[in-house]
């Protein structure tokens, strides 16, 4: 099944299933059912079963999925068994934190470099990765075939950064700037809105304390 035909919410849940299964470690059962996964993650069993139906492996009645096969199928489907190169634009605290996060390697993501306009940062390194001037972005992305861009700049600079990324051949953008971006239809943009996430948590806590 093509990834483009799968609902966005399903794509967001699949990594959660994979993380849970890998987290079982040595205690993982040989076989696991969609109902067991659903119970562990507080999800509906029908929803989990529908989500896993997009994978090439199939569960068996009463026994469920072979756990190792399900893990491999999830990793392959999500592209974690391949390595995709990425760049970060904005080498501030958030950008440098992302560059230093070793966990991305487990998800097939390799951050090659960062770009910034601050002359005190350009020419330095973060976790062994170079911080380059903005005028090198298009050439580097085009030359090395980089297709993932991460934006960690202020809102007022985000659209111009997005435009540069598109010129360089970036096809997927992870946007941490608090602004909606405009890009061609074939460019996927995921907005990581931290304010919205915090609002959801705050509202949840407020409702809990009212009870």
From TrEMBL:
GO molecular function: DNA binding; DNA-binding transcription factor activity
Organism superkingdom: Bacteria
Chaperone recorded as keyword: no
Residues bound to NAD(+): 90-95
Keywords: Cytoplasm, DNA-binding, NAD, Repressor, Transcription, Transcription regulation
Signal peptide annotation: none
Major place of residence: cytoplasm
Domain CoA-binding, first and last residues per copy: 79-180
GO biological process terms, semicolon-separated: negative regulation of DNA-templated transcription; response to redox state
DNA-binding region boundaries: 16-55
Function: Modulates transcription in response to changes in cellular NADH/NAD(+) redox state.
Annotated family: Belongs to the transcriptional regulatory Rex family.
Quaternary structure note: Homodimer.
PANTHER family, per the entry: REDOX-SENSING TRANSCRIPTIONAL REPRESSOR REX, REDOX-SENSING TRANSCRIPTIONAL REPRESSOR REX 1
The protein's name in its UniProt record: Redox-sensing transcriptional repressor Rex
Gene source species: Candidatus Ventrousia excrementavium
């Amino acid at each position: 099944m093509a990834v483009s035909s799968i609902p966005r919410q399903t794509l967001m849940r699949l990594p959660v299933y994979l993380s849970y299964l890998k987290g079982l470690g040595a205690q993982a059962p040989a076989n696991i059912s969609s109902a067991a996964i659903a119970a562990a993650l507080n999800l509906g069993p029908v929803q989990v079963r529908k989500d896993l139906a997009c994978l090439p492996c199939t569960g068996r009645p009463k026994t469920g999925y072979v756990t190792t096969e399900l893990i491999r199928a999830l990793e392959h489907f999500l592209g974690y068994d391949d390595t995709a190169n990425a760049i970060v634009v904005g080498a501030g605290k958030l950008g440098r934190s992302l560059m230093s996060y070793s966990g991305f390697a487990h998800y097939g993501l390799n951050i090659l470099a960062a770009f910034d306009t601050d002359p005190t940062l350009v020419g330095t390194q973060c976790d062994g990765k170079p911080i380059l001037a903005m005028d090198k972005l298009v050439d580097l992305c085009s030359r090395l075939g980089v297709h993932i861009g991460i934006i960690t700049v202020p809102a007022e600079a985000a659209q111009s950064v997005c435009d540069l990324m598109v010129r360089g051949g970036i096809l997927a953008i992870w946007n941490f700037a608090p602004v909606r971006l405009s890009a061609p239809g074939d460019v996927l943009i995921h907005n990581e809105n931290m304010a919205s996430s915090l609002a959801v948590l705050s509202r949840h806590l407020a409702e809990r304390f009212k009870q």
